[in-house]
C-alpha cells in the first residue's frame, strides 16, 4: 500500500496523514495498491477518477485484478456536475472498449448505484483461471496481472485528455 496525494499527485511509500510536500500541504491522501499507483496517477492527471482498484494479490485465496472508473455524485465540495462527469466517463469507456478490440481485459457497461456512476475493467483470465489453472502458482498470477496492468498502460498512449 502506498499513498497518493490528490493535490500534487506525489506518491509516498510510508504512512502519512497529510501531504509532506512543503509546497502542497494537501490533506487528502488515497491509499492504493503499490502495483497500481503509477498507472492510476496517469488516469487521474488526464481527468479520469477511479473509485477502487486492486492489482490482485499473489498469495491470497482471492485473485481478482480490477479497476473501477467513475465518480461519486456528491464530492467533498458539494454536488458535482453529474451530466458533465457522465460524459467524461462515457468518453473513457468508449475509448477503452475500442482499445480492447483484442480482448485483453473485460470492460463492463457503465452503471449507476450508491450515488455513483462507474464501470469496471477486470482481468480476463480471472474467471477461466480459477477453474482451469492452479491459482496458487505465483507465475500464473503474475502473467494475468501483467496483461491487466499492461492494458491500462498501453491505453494511456492515445487517451483523450479531459480538461
Ligand atoms: Zn501533495
Strand-and-helix sequence, N→C?
Answer: EEEHEEEEHEEEHH
Small molecules bound in the structure, each named once:
zinc ion
Number of domains: 2
Number of separate strands: 10
The largest β sheet comes out as: 5 strands, antiparallel
Work out the helix count: 4
The coarse silhouette is globular
Radius of gyration: 17 Å
Helix content: 25-40%
Distance, first to last CA: 29 Å
What's a concise summary of this model?
The chain has 163 residues and is an alpha+beta fold. It has four helices and ten strands, in the order βββαββββαβββαα. The longest helix has 18 residues, at 82-99.
Features:
4 helices; 2 domains; alpha+beta; single chain
Write the layout of secondary structure elements.
Elements: E1 2-5, E2 11-12, E3 29-32, H1 37-45, E4 50-54, E5 66-72, E6 74-75, E7 78-79, H2 82-99, E8 105-107, E9 111-113, E10 116-123, H3 125-132, H4 138-154
Antiparallel strand pairs: 1-2, 1-3, 4-5, 5-10, 6-7, 8-10, 9-10
This protein binds zinc ion.
Structure report:
- This protein folds into 2 domains: 1-32; 33-158, no CATH class.
- The radius of gyration is 17 Å and the shape is globular.
- The model has no long low-confidence stretch (mean pLDDT 86).
- By secondary structure, it is of the alpha+beta class.
- 25% of the residues are buried.
- A hairpin with a 5-residue loop joins strand 1 (2-5) and strand 2.
- The longest helix is centred in the middle third of the chain and has 18 residues, at 82-99.
- The chain has helices at residues 37-45, 82-99, 125-132, 138-154; strands at residues 2-5, 11-12, 29-32, 50-54, 66-72, 74-75, 78-79, 105-107, 111-113, 116-123.
- The chain binds zinc ion (ZN).
Amino acid at each position: 500500500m502506498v499513498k497518493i496525494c490528490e493535490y500534487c499527485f506525489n506518491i509516498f511509500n510510508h504512512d502519512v496523514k497529510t501531504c509532506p510536500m512543503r509546497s502542497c500541504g494537501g490533506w487528502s491522501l488515497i491509499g492504493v495498491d503499490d502495483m497500481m499507483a503509477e498507472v492510476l496517477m496517469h488516469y487521474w492527471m488526464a481527468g479520469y477518477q477511479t473509485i477502487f482498484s486492486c492489482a490482485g494479490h499473489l498469495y491470497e485465496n482471492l485473485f481478482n485484478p480490477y479497476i473501477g472508473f467513475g465518480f461519486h455524485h456528491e464530492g467533498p465540495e458539494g454536488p458535482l456536475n453529474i451530466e458533465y462527469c457522465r460524459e467524461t466517463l462515457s468518453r473513457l469507456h468508449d475509448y477503452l472498449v475500442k482499445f480492447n478490440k483484442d480482448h485483453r481485459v473485460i470492460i463492463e457497461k457503465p452503471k449507476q448505484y450508491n450515488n455513483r456512476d462507474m464501470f469496471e475493467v477486470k482481468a480476463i483470465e480471472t474467471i477461466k483461471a480459477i477453474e482451469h489453472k492452479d491459482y496458487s502458482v505465483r507465475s500464473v498470477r503474475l502473467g494475468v496481472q501483467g496483461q491487466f496492468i499492461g492494458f491500462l498502460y498501453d491505453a494511456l498512449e492515445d487517451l483523450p485528455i479531459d480538461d
